[in-house]
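FAQ

Q: What does a record look like?
A: Structure on top, sequence underneath. For example:
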């Protein structure tokens, strides 16, 4: 299951990068349509993710209940169990209304669009350039410029990946290190996602 979660995060980051590229290089007339298509693709991916994970949970529960009742009874039980398994799989709710990755994607898409220049009359490499005041490139932990920024999806603060990972390795019960942050939850690696907007800004302005 953990390997699936790693893959899911990698795919999610590719979707975010694609969204950022669409906003950078696709003109206004086509942008909304292309972003809607991408959002539908993310939605379908999250639905499949939900079904796959729930299917594995159901399969695990049946495996845990398995016993050795004898050859004849085993055949009858297998047929009945298989049918029950099929029914449970068919009845899985694949709604993504509370799917974390889908909600995160929609939030990040909104952030990208908010950072979009008001006019897209000329589409060039610097179309998504935002002032340094609007995008903070300084890691709150090391006070150095970030290279591989990640967002805490709970509070929205951004850190350098290596520095926040070092904090978590030293103390798993670590809260957001940004002064005044209202987030009272311990930081989990699952809360950290590549910050595509900041990463793109760094690549364009500090190569």
């Amino acid at each position: 299951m953990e390997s699936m979660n790693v893959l899911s995060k990698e795919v999610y980051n590719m979707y975010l990068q694609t969204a950022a590229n669409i906003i950078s290089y696709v003109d206004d007339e086509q942008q909304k349509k292309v972003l809607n298509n991408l959002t539908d693709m993310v939605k379908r991916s999250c639905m499949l993710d939900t079904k796959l994970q729930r299917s594995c949970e159901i399969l695990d529960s049946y495996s845990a209940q398995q016993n050795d009742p004898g050859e004849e009874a085993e055949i009858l039980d297998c047929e009945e169990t298989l049918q029950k398994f099929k029914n449970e799989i068919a009845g899985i709710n694949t709604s993504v209304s509370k799917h974390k990755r889908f909600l995160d994607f929609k939030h990040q898409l909104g952030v990208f669009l908010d950072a979009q220049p008001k006019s897209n009359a000329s589409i060039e490499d610097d179309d998504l350039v935002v002032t340094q005041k609007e995008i903070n490139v300084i890691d709150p932990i090391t006070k150095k410029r970030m290279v591989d920024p990640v967002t805490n999806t709970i509070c929205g603060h951004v850190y350098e990946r290596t520095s926040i990972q070092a904090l978590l390795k030293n103390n798993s019960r670590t809260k957001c290190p940004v002064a005044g942050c209202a987030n009272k939850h311990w930081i989990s690696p699952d809360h950290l996602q590549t910050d595509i907007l900041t990463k793109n800004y760094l690549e364009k302005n500090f190569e």
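Q: Is there anything notable about this one?
A: The chain is about 55% helix and 5% strand.
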